[in-house]
């Protein structure tokens, strides 16, 4: 054999066999690419705040932050007390408490939904018309001139549903709101729309058609406007024929579905759960959210848990009880990979951020060390696979996005800058970068 020539390893199958298999699986390859594109790799808010349309003002975000800070001042004026209420040790409590206060000053609300459904109710048409138009003006002004301290990074509306009794009203409100945004300069980057009480996939198809018509009217790029699907009925989980309706809904959105949001109380009531036991940790809720999670996995559609209706108001002991409940529910959801949830009262913000920050602070050192060992192929007491490295990087990125972690400490402990983390979290992007040490 001549120099530089390499001996061929013997095989048994003709090349035509692989070509035939490739051709036969080409439709499957295309379907996988289309149906399961993976997570978009962008920041996801840790919560959604719902404010009735008639109560939404230009000062709503700042007022929520100020009210949350006032609740801390009154009921937990120092880290030691706050930590004792939530079961955190001294060092963690000090860190989390400082970060919570800073977050409430800097960016009190991550995602705001102006509600025209249950939180708003039925009003005269002229009144809802004006409220929707005012919401559009305020959202446009916030997008143009607001800061994270005064305007949420994500903002939009929850319209009325596609059921016959309120369908026309919901469509009109959405039209007024979107038209107002366009007339004010265009759709903001952080626009989010929520379609509630979805029961049939056909209702999702109707919403997609509605948005397609609006885009064509204004000359917008096809698919520019997405929306969340709210899961509030048993039929949205399991259809009459036994199929998982929520999976069909994602496909019916034709690429426009951005999230699945669980509606705790409507769903619980639909199943006959008594009011005293309606909670996001009820077994019925766990089943629904597990089906949602499997249906959404790999599609790029994100998940959100529901809310608690126990408000942290009244005397300090009562507020502490409500805080413990809310904190526990948020921590439980995070452990189950539900990284977003609803908050219905300013008093929920301290425990939302405390639970989120503690979740990432507690696991930070271990996650960073495991990812460093994987990136450097240096071994260790845990043998991680690419999928685990992806999860570790995603965990660190989520911690960075919400303010639980700082870029300098993540780079120091993991050996990766943000581009490097994103390379592991979204392998299709490529571009792994190890930071200089």
Q: Number of helix segments?
A: 15
Low-confidence stretches: 428-437
The N- and C-terminal alpha carbons lie at a distance of: 47 Å
Strand coverage percent:
5-15%
Mean pLDDT: 93
Rg value:
24 Å
Give the SSE order as H and E letters. Answer: HEHHHEHEHEHEHEHHEHEHHHH
Strand order of the largest sheet: 7-6-5-4-3-2-1-8
Topology:
Layout: H1 15-35, E1 47-52, H2 60-75, H3 79-86, H4 90-106, E2 111-115, H5 125-145, E3 154-158, H6 167-183, E4 191-195, H7 201-218, E5 227-231, H8 245-252, E6 257-262, H9 264-270, H10 283-296, E7 302-304, H11 316-335, E8 341-343, H12 349-376, H13 386-402, H14 407-414, H15 418-425
Parallel strand pairs: 1-2, 1-8, 2-3, 3-4, 4-5, 5-6, 6-7
Pfam family, one: DUF6986
InterPro entries: DUF6986, Pyrv/PenolPyrv_kinase-like_dom, Pyrv_kinase-like_dom_sf
Keywords: Magnesium, Metal-binding
Question: Can you give me a brief rundown of this structure?
Answer:
The chain has 437 residues and is of the alpha/beta class.
Task: Walk me through what this model shows.
The protein is of the alpha/beta class. 52% of the residues lie in helices and 9% in strands. It contains 15 helices and eight strands. The protein has helices at residues 15-35, 60-75, 79-86, 90-106, 125-145, 167-183, 201-218, 245-252, 264-270, 283-296, 316-335, 349-376, 386-402, 407-414, 418-425, and strands at residues 47-52, 111-115, 154-158, 191-195, 227-231, 257-262, 302-304, 341-343. An eight-stranded parallel β-sheet has the order 7-6-5-4-3-2-1-8, covered by helices on one side. Helix 5 links the parallel strand 2 and strand 3 (154-158). The chain starts with 14 loop residues before the first helix and ends in a 12-residue tail after the last helix. Mean pLDDT is 93; it is low at 428-437.
